[in-house]
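Hi team,

As requested, here is the filled-out complex form for the zinc ion run. I kept the field names the same as last time so the parser does not choke. Let me know if anything looks off before we queue the next batch.

— J.
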Amino acid sequence: MHDNPILRPALGAASSAAATPLTFTDDAHADVALGASDAHPAEVVRASNLARYGTLAAVIVPPLALVATMALAWGGWFGWVDLALMVGMYVITGLGVTVGYHRLVTHRSFRAKRPIELFFAICGSMAAQGPILWWAATHRRHHQHSDHEHDPHSPHAGQKPGFMGRVRGFLHAHIGWLFADLRADADRYIPDLTADRGLERISALFPLWVLLGLALPAAIGGLVTMSWMGALLGFLWGGLVRMALLHHVTWSVNSVCHLWGARDYRSGDESRNNPVMGVLALGEGWHNNHHAFPASARHGLKWWQFDLSWVVIRTLEKLGLAEKVRVPSADRLAARAR
Ligand SMILES: [Zn+2]
Ligand SMILES: [Zn+2]
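And here is what came back:
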C-alpha cells in the first residue's frame, strides 16, 4: 500500500509538517513512527492503578445495570424479538464500523468489491458515529499522533498528573473529545477518500442512514409482532439502546484500550490488548496489536484472540468478494514483540 500513488502526497506533506510520518495504512512506516514518542516525551503520562481500575468499573457497571434492567423487563417491555433486534443490529452496524469504516476504508487493510464496500459503509453509518469521511480523517489523526499532542482522543496526552488528571483524561478519551474542536484536515488525512464519489455521497447522506438504522428495527419489530407496541419496542431496543451500547463500546476502545490491558508489541504509545473489549468491540479491542500493525486486516493476531471482524473479512476473501488482505509476516511480528 505504501506504493499507492494517491497516498504518497499525504505521506510527504505530513512528514514535513509534523516530522511524524502517517502510519494509518502502512506498517512499513510504523518503525519510524516509534520515534514519535521521543519527540514529545513530556506529554505522555501513565495512569495509576487506581485510575485504571476505577475506569474499568465506570465502563462495566452501567452496562451491567442495563442487563439487570433487561432481566426485570423480560416478558413485558423486553422479549426475544427485542433481544434479537438489539443483538442483530449491534452486530450489523458494529461490523459496518469495524470492517467498513475502520479496516477497509480508513486503513485500506484489504480491498472489497464495490457493492460490498458501499454496503459496509452504509451499515457503519447506521451506528451514528459520524459521517464516514469525518470518522476516517479523525481516526488517521489518532494513529499519527497516538497519545501525543494532537491525538483527538487520548486519555494521556495533555492531562495533568494525579487522580483527577487521570479521571479527566478518561472522560476526555471516552466522550469529552466529541465536544472539542474536531476539524480534521481532509487534504492532509483523506485525499484518497475525498476523491471517491461513492464514499463522499454516503458520507453526505449520513443523517439518512442514522434514521434508517432506527426505522429498520422498528419496522421489523412491528411486522413480526403485527403490533404498534412491537414497532415501538423494536425502535427502542434495536435502535436507541443498541446505538448507545455500540457508542459506549467504541469509545471504550479509545479510553479503556489506551489504559487497561496487555502491551504485547512495541507501538510507541499506550495502546493495550483488552480481552473484554476484544470480544465486545468485534475484534477492535486487540488495540495494541492494531497500533503496532495498523495496516493489518487482522487485529486478534493470536489464535485465541477472537476477532469477529477478521472472521468476516476472511469469509469475504474465501467467497471472492475481498482481496489484497494484509496481515503482518511472522518476521514482522517477532521484530515488534515486547
Ligand atoms: Zn488507539
Ligand atoms: Zn485504526
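Two things worth flagging: Residues 228-255 form the longest helix (28 residues). The chain is about 60% helix and 0% strand.

Thanks,
J.
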